Amino acid sequence: MTKSLLAQGKVLPLVEDFYTIQGEGFHTGKPAYFIRLGGCDVGCRWCDAKQTWNAKMFPPVAVEEIVARAASYPAKAVVVTGGEPLSYNLNVLCNLLREKNIQTFIETSGSQPISGSWSWICLSPKPKQPPLEEIFLKANELKVIVEAEQDFLWAEENAKKVADNCLLFLQPEWSKHKKIMPAIVEYAKQYPKWNISIQAHKFMDVP
User: What is the pLDDT of residue 47?
Assistant: First the structure.
C-alpha cells in the first residue's frame, strides 16, 4: 500500500520541512517554506545534505500534512529540494499547494523526469548524472556549482541548452568558496551573462 501511495505522490519521504530564508540563486533573501525529500541518484562528494541520500531512512509522510504545515506560515512560497526531489511524483503536492495560492519552487539536478506544476525551476546540473534534455528549456534558472576552474566548461555546456531568458548563476562549492571565488568573480566579469550566487543562508546562520 505504501509503495502505491508513494508512486501516486500521496506520501513522500520527508527529511525535514521548515520556514526560512532562501539563501541561493535569484530568489536569495526571499522567505519560503522548504520541503526536503529523501533519496538521490546523483551523490555529489561535496553535497552538504548527504543525510538525504537514503530514502529508506525517512518514512513516507502524507502530502496533506506537509501542505498544511506549509500553509500555516505567512510566506506563500514553497521550495522543494532534496536529495533529488524529482525522484517522486510531485503532482499531488503541487496541486494542493496551488489550491492554497502558494507558489511552487523546485531545486533539481534534472536527472529525473519532471512532475508537478512549478512557478520556478532552478536547474543545478551535475556532471556525474547530467540532466535529461527535457528540463533545459523549462528551467528559469541555471545554477552551476563551481569547485575548480574546469567547471566553467561544464557551466558553458549547460548554458547552451537553456532558453534565452533563463538566468545564469555560478555558485562556489562551500568548502572551497574562499579559494575559488576570485576565479568566479573574474569569469563573471569577463562573461557578464553569468551572475554569482553564494550560499547566503550560511552567512545568515539560518537553515
Answer: 67
Count the neighbouring beta carbons within 10 Å of the beta carbon of residue 29.
10
Q: Locate 56 and state its grid cell.
A: 529508506
- For the chain, 207 residues long, the average pLDDT of each consecutive 10-residue run is 86 96 97 94 69 82 98 98 95 98 98 97 95 98 96 98 98 93 98 97 89
What pLDDT, on a 0 to 100 scale, did the predictor assign at position 53? Answer: 72
Q: Report the candidate in 186, 192, 174 with the shortest Cα–Cα distance to residue 24.
A: 174
CA atoms within 13 A on the CB side of 97: 30
CA angle at residue 182 from 128 to 48, to 5 degrees? 40
Rg of the chain (C-alpha set)? 17
Question: Which cell goes with 174?
Answer: 562551500
Q: Domain 2-204: which CATH class?
A: alpha beta
**Residue written as grid cell 492554497:** 100
Domain map (residue ranges) of the chain = 2-204
Neighbours of 175 (CB within 10 A): 11
